[in-house]
Amino acid sequence: MLRIKDINHVVYRHRDLDAVERFLTDFGMVTAQKTADRLYMRGTGPLPYVYIAERSEQTGCSTLAFAVEERADLAFAQTLPGGSLIEAIEGPGGGERVVLTDPAGLRVELVHAVEAAEPLPMRKALTLNSAQKKQRFGEVQRPAKAPAQVMRLGHIAIGVEDMPESLSWYREMLGLIPSDLVVESDDQNQPVAAFLRLNRGADWTDHHTVALFQAPQDKVHHASFEVQDFDAQCLGNTWMHERNWTPFWGIGRHLLGSQIFDYWLDPSGNIIEHFTDGDLLNHESPLGHTAACDDSLYQWGPSMSVEDFLGEASAYSLNK
Ligand SMILES: [Fe+2]
């Protein structure tokens, strides 16, 4: 079995790299390297990039990349069905990779030995006073107006035509573990959505790193990036509005994973998410089952239906 260390980066195709660079800068990423055809954007964390934009007439997400523990995992990955040979990675930090293809046709890269970059300065998390717990004394709360600094890529959500096949692939090939399954009926073995986390044993990991939704056609729905705290999200939301970018949905709190979310549309029409305050699970966390309905989407926030959220990716027949 492959040992996946973490999600690493995504690759999106865009017609206009200058436009997406302006968007991602306002979204809170930092340009790491730019050529005529490729743009590498980073967060404040130690990865040299978390998002690659490729100039292309086609648009959309083309690649999802995970870091593996050791080079031996790349050697093993070469032997998997459809696995490429180990090849060198161009771009900041170098490294090596093996390329797989998931059942939805998404390119899945397994990367290793990408050299870490120096983390960037990040505003510290705010010290909050709640009704019962006071912890800030004599200090004022004045977070600066700024983009919501992106620290890292957290997860990707993918609409898939064949849920059983995709779910099996991510479980068996990448060793991902279901945290929550969304089911339409009493048949809990036929989920319409699956939230999968990394297999990190006793270590705490995000509630989901990959989310799969039953859909009429294979298509990446969104990629999600972690920001420092709630104020970062709210200030980032204000910043994006003032720059006239297109909001999609937010700010609210999801149910499955509990993240506070804020979704935007990039210049090519892709959905991209800021999140903060997500749940952490480990090997002792039980699998959850939830009925498919709008309430499975969020606890609070602007009104939204599953159909409108998933759009053309939606294949749910809802029991509201
Ligand atoms: Fe998400």
Task: Describe what is shown at a glance.
This protein has 320 residues and is mainly β. 15% of the residues lie in helices and 37% in strands. The protein has helices at residues 17-27, 71-78, 163-172, 230-242, 306-310, and strands at residues 4-14, 30-34, 38-42, 51-55, 60-68, 87-88, 96-101, 107-112, 150-160, 177-183, 193-197, 205-206, 210-214, 219-227, 246-254, 260-265, 271-276, 280-281, 288-291, 298-300.
Structural class: mainly beta
Oligomer class: single chain
- Uncertain spans, ≥5 residues at pLDDT below 50? 313-320
How many angstroms separate the termini? 40 Å
Sheet with most strands: strand arrangement:
19-10-11-13-9-14-17-16-15-20
What is the makeup of the main sheet? 10 strands, mixed
Count the strands? Answer: 20
**Class in CATH?**
Alpha Beta
Tell me the radius of gyration: 19 Å
- Cofactors, ions, other ligands: fe (ii) ion
- Average pLDDT metric: 94
Fourth-level CATH superfamily: 2,3-Dihydroxybiphenyl 1,2-Dioxygenase, domain 1
Instruction: Domain count, please report it.
Output: 1
Q: Per the principal axes of the C-alpha atoms, what is the gross shape?
A: globular
How do the helices and strands follow one another from N- to C-terminus? EHEEEEHEEEEHEEEEEHEEEEEEH
